[in-house]
Design goal:
249 residues; mainly alpha
Length: 249
Amino acid sequence: MSEKLSILSHLNELKAVLLKALKSVLLVFLTLVYFAGDIYELVSAPLIETLPSGASMIATQVVSPFFTPLKLTLYVSVFLAVPYLLLTIWRFVAPGLYQHEKKAVLPLVMSSSVLFYGGVSFAFLVVLPIAFSFFSSVALEGVNIATDIDSYLSFVLKIFLAFGLAFQMPVATVLVCVTGMSSHLELRQKRAHVIVGAFVIGMILTPPDMFSQTLLAIPIWLLFEASLLVARFYEPHCNHNDSTLYTER
């Protein structure tokens, strides 16, 4: 009976966490919805600035001019609410973690969100302007460039997600070392495999051209090198066999 009560209690806590997360996203969305058009103009700026004279974006569906900015605003709301979402989730799982686990997990959780923001910012400020300039320069003569606003949104969201996830390389590398699956020395010996894997990831996650693939692969490789340095400081803590670590909360 006590087990059932405990499970129900955890489910109620999880429900409360999910409701808080939903409310936080909704609050940010309601705050930003008035500026939905401005937000879309900001996100579309990298493309607009590279379009030939006289070219513009188009809407191929009747409802696109209304719903596309709203859709983007919803994604932006989730994006901005991530720190609070992570904090809410942390408060839910922290009581069940040992003290050494809290010390290891919390920095990784915070680093993960910062790296995700960094990946999206890098994609928006560096990758998209360069990529769109390249695509515009190689457009066939006589072809009018007219990008659909909904298609553009889908494209940039995929790019943002790809770079946000790719920038998680340091967190993934540290976790591999923390869990004892490998060490920074062993990973360093596999550097060549990582570089090849970075280009494969770039090929899968970005548009089918070497230019975009390279723009993603190089940061992955550099982040891998940086993560090897960070992993060195985590490994000593993971190799302790002090049993008090597993009893201290």
